[in-house]
Amino acid sequence: MSASTFQNHSLINSFVIGIDIGGTNTRIGLVNTLGEIVSDSRIDTPLFFSANLFLEALALEVDFFFKAGHKILGIGIGAPSVNLKSEMIENAANLNWEGPLAVTHFLKNRFQVPVAITNDANLMVLAHQYFGKIKYEHFVVVTLGTGVGSGICCNGMLLNGRDGFAGEVGHLIVEPLGRSCHCGRQGCLETYSSANGIKRSIMMLMAQKYGSEDVFKDIKINELDTKVIAELASKGNQIAIEAFHLAGTMLGAALANFVVLFNPEIIFLTGGVTNAGSLLFGPTIEAFNQSLLNVYPEAIPIEQSVFGESEGAVLGAASLIWNTYDTTNN
Ligand SMILES: [Zn+2]
Questions:
Q1: How many Å apart are CA 54 and CA 114, to the nearest integer?
Q2: 184: CA distance to ligand 1 center in Å?
Q3: How many whole angstroms from 169 Cα to the centroid of ligand 1?
Q4: Quick one: CA torsion of 319, 82, 25, 40, rounded to 10 degrees?
Q5: What distance in angstroms lies between residue 168's CA and the mean position of ligand 1's atoms?
Q6: Which CATH number applies to 3-128+309-328: 3.30.420.40, 1.25.40.10, 3.40.630.30, 3.40.50.2300?
Q7: Residues 277-329 pLDDT 10s
Q8: How remote is the CA of residue 33 from the centroid of ligand 1, in Å?
Q9: Distance in angstroms (rounded) separating the CA atoms of residues 258 and 298
């Protein structure tokens, strides 16, 4: 699908703007045909009290790239809760504004270039499909950040489902009657394997096993993040090691269930939590291998994605345009 793009020299000085609209920030990147983000900017999404103010701020950032004289082929957008039929953002829980947001229509009118939009959960799969060095037909990308999300590519097709919510792996129940989740149920994967889940494990282990003797008692809860926890784990702190072990064990078992459903050839992990490296990957792969159904003839690798969470989202958004452009040129 995309290999021809890299040989298409007429596109070498052309760019696509990729936009990832998120609850915390919105990232805008200028993406070339090789999948490099040559320039980017960011706006704080919650700063804007109305959808119109946000759209104007977004247009200002986009306009900056146009005014710089770049040849821009179009704009690709990833956002939460996108209605793929109306192309509007509808009732996104983590955005401030109520009612549908017609960001696609707005940018199309303003800049007179093609604009495409998709759900943010799809972006990592799109980044791999279009810009990945090796093209896989069957793969899963799991993002471990504040929450846990995933995208699924099966038989070369990105799975959306009826409502666009396929691949909500964060809310796969891995422990019936387990930890309470913000979705209202109990035992969801992200209550164990997300950054917040790992913090909850620290609290639980402090209370259950180690009392107040541990170094964690001196760290304020709002200063605690997976980077700090990983540093302590690498120095041998048992609470930190156990928190990652639990996160990986739950994740590995969940991924084995994913394999039963989708039979992927590879599983990619990305997101801030994966920066812990072997602290997470070790127990994940161990639990995965222990839980995997014994019918698959070849090993299914679990690898860190080459695309970071933020970078992958912008590239995935940009691929919405690069993809169509590529097709029309071949
Ligand atoms: Zn849940």
A1: 20
A2: 6
A3: 9
A4: 20
A5: 9
A6: 3.30.420.40
A7: 999 999 999 999 999 999 999 999 999 999 999 999 999 999 999 998 754 44
A8: 38
A9: 16
